[in-house]
Amino acid sequence: MKPRERDISKSDTASRVRGSTPDPSTPIYPIGVAARILNVHPRTLRLYEAEGFIKPSYVGPRRLFSQNDMDWIACLRSMIHDEGISMPGLKRLLCLVPCWEIANCPCEVRQNCKAKFEKMSSLQDTDTPCKVSCEGCV
């Protein structure tokens, strides 16, 4: 293969990768990038993890966040800062009612939200049944 042909094939592969959209549940953001996008300090994300609000994926010692994680963290920050709910209070509320009821999400947002289901279970014990009636769940 000539050097010029090799460069073209690498360029073609790179453009296909750049053009593809990853699955929103795929962990791709390291903690520093996630913190920059969310405009928070990485320590804030570690605190949310320690409190049980988020469960990033780990690859070795590195935390990786998915787009669903990022959406949930943005919602979480809104409830804490815009609604003025303390973290202990939010923890208790999330064990009693779904997150969309606390955040007053419209029905269309709630139906398309991929982050809501992953996060609710992280705050409850696996042996404890869900305290919310799921007849209306999507």
Walk me through what this model shows.
This protein has 138 residues and is mainly alpha-helical. The chain has a single domain (24-120), classed as Multidrug-efflux Transporter Regulator, Chain: A, Domain 2 (Orthogonal Bundle), CATH 1.10.1660.10. The protein is built from eight helices and three strands, in the order αβααββααααα. It has helices spanning 3-19, 31-38, 42-50, 67-82, 87-96, 99-102, 107-112, 115-120, and strands spanning 29-30, 57-59, 62-65. A three-stranded antiparallel sheet has the order 1-3-2. Strand 2 (57-59) and strand 3 form a beta hairpin. 16% of the residues are buried. Mean pLDDT is 76; it is low at 3-16 and 124-138.
The tally of helices reads 8
Q: What is the SS-derived class?
A: mainly alpha
Q: Residue share in helices?
A: 55-70%
Query: How does the major sheet shape up?
Result: 3 strands, antiparallel
List keywords for this structure.
single chain, 138 residues, mainly alpha, Multidrug-efflux Transporter Regulator, Chain: A, Domain 2, three-stranded antiparallel sheet, globular, disordered N terminus, disordered C terminus
